[in-house]
Each structure stands twice: as structure tokens, then as C-alpha cells.
Amino acid sequence: MSESASSSRTHSSVWSHFTLLEEEGKAQCNYFGTKYKRSGGSTTTLHTHLKNKHSRSFWEFLVKWIVCDDQPFVVVECEYLRKLFRLLNPNAKSLSADTIHNDIMKSFKDEKNKIQEILQEQLTFLIKDELES
Ligand SMILES: [Zn+2]
What we know:
Pfam families: zf-BED. One of its GO terms (cellular component) is nucleus. By secondary structure, this protein is mainly alpha-helical. The chain is about 60% helix and about 10% strand. Strands 1-2-3 form a 3-stranded antiparallel sheet, with no helix packed on it. A hairpin with a 5-residue loop joins strand 2 and strand 3. It is flat. The N and C termini lie far apart (about 85 Å). Bound molecules: zinc ion. Zinc ion binds next to helix 2.
């Protein structure tokens, strides 16, 4: 009885991403090392962590790889890359080149605006300094 109870405690699919730290009564993420207190048999917190933290990181790393390695946007439409993603996460949705292109262009514009604002500010300071001296 207690044996089946303890095995069902780590039966959920989230446990392929977490290690149960019996003595601490915590679950630790295998990737980020974040620890979560185990409250009963619930895996809600762990699911939330995967949904938020891992999804965000997946997207961030994918975008960085495409940009830093000069990959074409259509690389995300490669049949084998899609199979690889689905192997790691059976719920993974297929990405399109347009989605990744739009996201990268939006990030690029945001960063460009930030740099423009910083430069504008610096330039204003320099001119003001020049006029006052
Ligand atoms: Zn994690």
C-alpha cells in the first residue's frame, strides 16, 4: 500500500525534469536547480515551473541559437528539428518561420529603440555641457 503511494508520488511526467529530495521534502529542477517544497502529492507548482520557466527559456535559447549561429528562420520548419522538439516535449507545437521572424524583428526593434533613447540622452547631455561651458 505505502509502496504504491510513494511510486505514484513520482509517477507524473514532470518527474523526468525533477529530482525528489526525500530528506528535504523538496523537488529540485534538474535543469535550473530550483527547489520547491513538496505539498502532498500535488505537482501543480512543478507543472507551472515547466510551463513558465522552461517554455520561456526554450524560446530564448532557440532565438539566440538562430541569431548567433546565423540560422535561416525556416530552420524551425525542418521536419527533423520538429521531431526532435516533440521527442523532448510531446506537447510541443510546431513553430513557423514567420512566428520566429516576427519575434526576432520585434526584439530587434525594441533593442534599437532602447539604444536610440540612450544615445539621444547622452547627446543631449553633451550639447548641454558644451553650451554651458
Ligand atoms: Zn526547471
